[in-house]
UniProtKB/TrEMBL annotation:
<dbReference type="InterPro" id="IPR001478">
    <property type="entry name" value="PDZ"/>
</dbReference>
<dbReference type="InterPro" id="IPR043504">
    <property type="entry name" value="Peptidase_S1_PA_chymotrypsin"/>
</dbReference>
<dbReference type="InterPro" id="IPR036034">
    <property type="entry name" value="PDZ_sf"/>
</dbReference>
<dbReference type="InterPro" id="IPR009003">
    <property type="entry name" value="Peptidase_S1_PA"/>
</dbReference>
<comment type="similarity">
    <text>Belongs to the peptidase S1C family.</text>
</comment>
<dbReference type="Pfam" id="PF13365">
    <property type="entry name" value="Trypsin_2"/>
</dbReference>
<feature type="domain" description="PDZ">
    <location>
        <begin position="192"/>
        <end position="270"/>
    </location>
</feature>
<dbReference type="Pfam" id="PF17820">
    <property type="entry name" value="PDZ_6"/>
</dbReference>
<dbReference type="InterPro" id="IPR001940">
    <property type="entry name" value="Peptidase_S1C"/>
</dbReference>
<protein>
    <submittedName>
        <fullName>2-alkenal reductase</fullName>
    </submittedName>
</protein>
<keyword id="KW-0378">Hydrolase</keyword>
<keyword id="KW-0645">Protease</keyword>
<dbReference type="InterPro" id="IPR041489">
    <property type="entry name" value="PDZ_6"/>
</dbReference>
<dbReference type="InterPro" id="IPR051201">
    <property type="entry name" value="Chloro_Bact_Ser_Proteases"/>
</dbReference>
Length: 301
């Protein structure tokens, strides 16, 4: 068997294993895709798909359709969880690993209503930002040239092991070969919070910041190739009270590495402690700070 034949066989086997856990999410304005997270009916999709309008239906297969209920949605990441009235569904696990540019990936979804279509490409770039459907910015996206078309939204991006490494979220209609996915390590914690609480409530630090690549010497000091740069401090904020300064590099929070804004948000949302330990690089030197995030405002009744 040639290397090309072996690769073709491996891709076909991977799709056969993964495709049954990919569903269609339909509403009166159109349809998208979703990934079954749990056999008792939890489906991960995009917020802009789940909130498309009207009752939700989940197409488990060509002939099997079940009613869906929105469990929760997070506009900040364009993720949502839908509960479907079905049991013993095949599932796909979300990977926690970080991707590398150039990796082979597969997208499975329902573009233009064509059920469980498969496309193959590579990871074209990482940490892309894109305007969100409801305003704001989707941050830290995976860029891929695996074809993503209307209806793919909410479907999985799979790596060569068949693990979900991203959730398709957007494509640029005027460009070819440029699609985007939410990293699975973001989708994993957001989905768990949505299932548990129905929403993601983010504590307030009082900073404007961005993730950025580090110069080699700085990366060695930080312990990883990226960190979060503080751009502005809000007057009277928890960050100001903790001694965070403009141009600080946030490199760790509660002992967890901080390479992206998502890493920071994850610690803030999941931590049960009132005080968070931050490690920053300032003037080339590592410093430890303690910050007490302000609880998020209560949701309006």
């Amino acid at each position: 068997m040639t290397a090309l034949q072996a690769f073709s066989r491996d891709v076909a086997d991977l799709v056969a294993r993964a495709a049954p856990a990919v569903v269609g999410v339909e509403h009166r304005r159109g349809q998208g895709s979703g990934v079954v997270l749990a056999g008792d009916g939890y489906v991960l999709t995009n917020a802009h798909v789940a909130r498309g309008g009207g009752p939700l239906r989940v197409r488990i297969s060509g002939s099997r359709v079940a009613a869906g209920t929105l469990v929760g949605a997070d506009e900040r990441t364009d993720l949502a969880v839908v509960r479907v009235e079905a049991r013993d569904l095949p599932v796909l696990a979300l990977s926690e690993r970080r991707l590398d540019v150039g990796e082979i990936v597969l997208a499975i979804g329902n573009p233009l209503g064509f059920e469980r279509s498969v496309t193959v490409g590579v990871v074209s770039a990482l940490y892309r930002n894109l305007p969100a459907p409801q305003g704001g910015t989707l941050e830290g996206l995976v860029q891929t040239d695996a074809s993503i078309n209307p209806g793919n939204s909410g479907g999985p991006l799979l790596d060569a092991h068949g693990e979900v490494v991203g959730i398709a979220t957007a494509m640029l209609p005027w460009a070819r070969g440029i699609g985007f996915a939410i990293p699975a390590h973001t989708a994993s914690w957001v989905a768990s919070v949505l299932i548990r609480e129905g929403e993601v409530r983010r504590p307030f630090l009082g900073i404007a910041a961005r993730g950025e690549d580090l110069e080699p010497a700085v990366a060695t000091e930080a312990g990883h190739p990226r960190a979060v740069r503080v751009l502005e401090i809000v007057e009277g904020s928890p960050a100001q009270a903790a001694g965070v300064r403009r141009d600080d590099l946030l490199v760790a929070a509660d002992g967890s590495p901080v390479q992206t804004l998502d890493d920071l948000q994850r610690v803030l949302v999941l931590s049960a402690r009132p005080e968070i330990g931050l490690e920053v690089l300032r003037g080339g030197r590592r410093q430890a700070l303690a910050i007490r995030p302000r609880p998020p405002a209560a949701r309006a009744a």
